[in-house]
Amino acid sequence: MNTSNLDASSKSPPLTNGSGAAAILSAGVGAFALAVLASAGDKSAHIASSLIFYKPTGPLSGVTTAAILIWLFTWGILGWRWRNKTVPAGRINAAALILLGLSFLLTFPPIADLL
Question: Using H for helix, E for strand and C for coil, what is the string for the chain?
């Protein structure tokens, strides 16, 4: 057996999960932003009029554009900050799932009408 291969493999950098965790959490943040913006656009005429980026689609164009920008911005910042780190994946996944669940609730009409 060649010992030089063993020495090279033992010096490899440790695996990190920061980039993946950033993608997961930012997806939850983006989904929640979409739900909040959609609910706010439905409830407030002023917010709805400020979210019209393309007249034929109405406020939906601004809701989706803003949510995508929030998602990309969050992913970029978290990815940059966590790129070489190992973060607690369980907590990150739980937070992302909670945000996704809240976004489903906010877009469900009986719940959205209560707000």
Answer: CCHHHHHHHHCCCCCCCHHHHHHHHHHHHHHHHHHHHHHHHHHCHHHHHHCCCEHHHEHHHHHHHHHHHHHHHHHHHHHHHHCCCCCCHHHHHHHHHHHHHHHHHHHCHHHHHHC
Give the chain's domain count.
1
Q: Is residue 86, in this structure, part of any structural domain at all? A: yes
Range of the domain at 28: 16-114
Q: Please check whether residue 5 lies inside any domain of the structure.
A: no
Q: Which two tokens stand for residue 12?
A: 């490899």
Quickly state the pLDDT bin for 48 (edges 50, 70, 90): very high
- Per-residue pLDDT of 53-75, as tens digits, reads 999 999 999 999 999 999 999 99
Does residue 3 form part of some domain? Answer: no
In a domain? residue 10: no
Geometric angle at alpha carbon 61, from 57 and 65, rounded to 5°: 165
pTM recorded for the entire structure: 0.84
